[in-house]
Amino acid sequence: MASADLHEAVLENLPGGLIVIDPEGTVLVVNRAAKKILGLPPQSFKGNPCKKLFSAQPAMVDVLMGTTKHLSEVNRKEMRIANLRGERIVLGYGTLVFRSESGSPLGVGMTFQDITPFVPVPLHGQFISLINLYFIPFTFAMVIAALIWGLAEAWEKTLAIAVLLGLAAFNYFVAWQVRRARTDMLDLAKLHTPANFLAMGLLVYLLGTLWGPMWLLFVLTPLAASLYATRTITLATSVTSAVVLLGIYDQRGLTGTIGWAQAFLHALFIVLISLFVHSLAALVERVRSGRA
C-alpha cells in the first residue's frame, strides 16, 4: 500500500503536466500540474474518455489518440491551445508509450509544460506594438491640432474623436491579443491593416481640408504594412492610399493647379516612402541573416 501511495505521490508532484490514457482512450492519470495548466478542477478524472475530458483542447486529443494508433514517441514539440480559463497558451510537450514486458502497449502518455512566457512575440505583433508606440501618439497629436486650430464643424469634431479613440483601443487590443497568444494568425491581427486604413481615411476626410498636415495620416498605414508585408502588398496598400487621398481631395472641393500639384506630390510621396521602407526592412533582414 505504501508503494502505491508513493507511486501516486510521485506522479502528482511531477513539476510538469502528465496525462496517461489506455489504448482505448480512457484517462488513467491527470496529475496536479496538468490540471493547473489546463484549468481543470482538482478532482480525479480517472475513467473519463479522453475525447470528452479534453474536448476544449482538440489538439491534445489528436496527439494522444494518434500516439495510441501509431505507437511512436516524440519530444520537444509545441502546440497552441486554450485552457479552461480562456487563456491561449503554448505547450512544449513530448509523448510516451508504455509497454508490458512482452512489448504490448499498455497506454500512452503526454508530458508538457506551459512555455508561453518563453515564446517570442511574432514579428507582426512586434510591428503592431511599434505602431502603437510611435504612430498612435502622432495621430493623436495631429487630430488634436486639427480640432484646436482647424475649422471643423461640431459633428465632425465629435465623429473624429470617436474614430480616434476607437482606433487606439482596437490597435492596443490587437497587440495585447497577439502578445498573449504568441501568434499572428488571429483574425483580429489580419484586420489590423484594413481597419487602420479605414480609420485614417475617415479622419483625413473629416479634417483634412481644414488642417493641411492631416494628409500625413495616409502615410502611416502603408508605412506600417511595408515593415512586414510583401512588396506587392506594400505597393497595393500605398497606391490605394494615394488614390483614396486624391479622391478625398476631390470630394472636399480641392481646386486650382497649385492645389492639385501639391495633392499629387502627397500621393507620390506615400508610394515612394512606403517602398523605400519596405526595401530598407528587407535589406536589414538580409544583413541579419548573412545573405547581404
Structural class: alpha+beta
Tally of helical runs: 11
Largest sheet, described in full? 5 strands, antiparallel
Sheet-strand content, in percent, reads: 5-15%
First-to-last CA distance: 67 Å
- The Cα radius of gyration reads 27 Å
Q: How many domains would you count in the coordinates?
A: 2
User: What's the helical proportion of residues?
Assistant: 55-70%
Q: Which parts are unreliable, with pLDDT below 50 for 5 consecutive residues or more?
A: none
Shape: elongated
Spatial order of strands in the largest sheet: 2-1-5-4-3
Order of helices and strands: HEEHHHEEEHHHHHHH
Residue-averaged pLDDT: 89
Number of strands: 5
Please state the oligomeric state of the protein chains shown.
single chain
Give a written overview of the molecule.
This protein has 11 helices and 5 strands, in the order H-E-E-H-H-H-E-E-E-H-H-H-H-H-H-H. With 292 residues, it is of the alpha+beta class. The mean pLDDT is 89. The chain has 2 domains: 2-118, Beta-Lactamase; 123-289, no CATH class.
Would you summarize the structure shown here?
This protein has helices at residues 2-12, 32-38, 50-53, 58-70, 123-149, 154-181, 187-190, 192-207, 217-228, 231-251, 257-289, and strands spanning 17-21, 27-30, 77-82, 88-99, 105-114. With 292 residues, it is an alpha+beta fold.
Give short descriptive properties of this protein.
292 residues; alpha+beta; Beta-Lactamase; 2 domains; five-stranded antiparallel beta sheet
